[in-house]
């Protein structure tokens, strides 16, 4: 039953991404589903990491290096942001999402800052008051629970969802000749492959809930949502 899954089902992903919520919340959820970033990484993700995508078109993904030195200071204050263990790692952002983040940065985020008394924060994602999200706050997780109607869902479960769908897709892709587990390990920043192997058990239990075109479907769902907004 979907309520027992440790990750979001296909239908629940659709429900989440078609829900009309605040733009930065939507993009945080989408980033978690398409990159596997942790909550602290998402909320301290630097605005400067998103550049004009005009020179990146034609790529399927954009590689972004997460460096905790760029992420742990917000408005001059040291926070608990950044990567786990402060280890540098590379994430892959699908080009469709990257372009949407650039549009958000140039328009939505700029407007939020103009209507706020906040100095320009280094964080990409700002709340309704033009301020960075609290790294210890529960608002985003509460919003997730309300939208999906699942009490067990959190931003961290979106990370699990990304890992499981990505592992499934790579193992099914006959044109992918790398080690799917190692790829997911690198994207998640696991120090041990044994941690990543947990998702193999998810695959056995969730075969009927998984889809091969995970990122493509998220892009399509989000495009439709943007056009209806």
Can I get a quick summary?
It contains eleven helices and four strands. The protein is mainly alpha-helical and 229 residues long.
Topology:
Layout lengths: L9 H9 L4 H13 L3 H5 L17 E6 L1 H4 L1 E2 L2 E2 L10 E6 H20 L24 H10 L6 H18 L7 H9 L4 H4 L1 H9 L7 H15 L1
Antiparallel strand pairs: 1-4, 2-3
Helix pairs in contact: 1-11, 2-5, 2-7, 7-8, 7-10
Could you please describe the fold and organization of this structure?
- This protein is mainly α and 229 residues long.
- It has 11 helices and 4 strands; from the N terminus they run αααβαβββααααααα.
- It has helices spanning 10-18, 23-35, 39-43, 68-71, 95-114, 139-148, 155-172, 180-188, 193-196, 198-206, 214-228; strands at 61-66, 73-74, 77-78, 89-94.
- The protein has a two-stranded antiparallel ribbon.
- A hairpin with a 2-residue loop joins strand 2 and strand 3 (77-78).
- Helix 1 (10-18) runs parallel beside helix 11 (214-228).
- The protein is globular, with a radius of gyration of 17 Å.
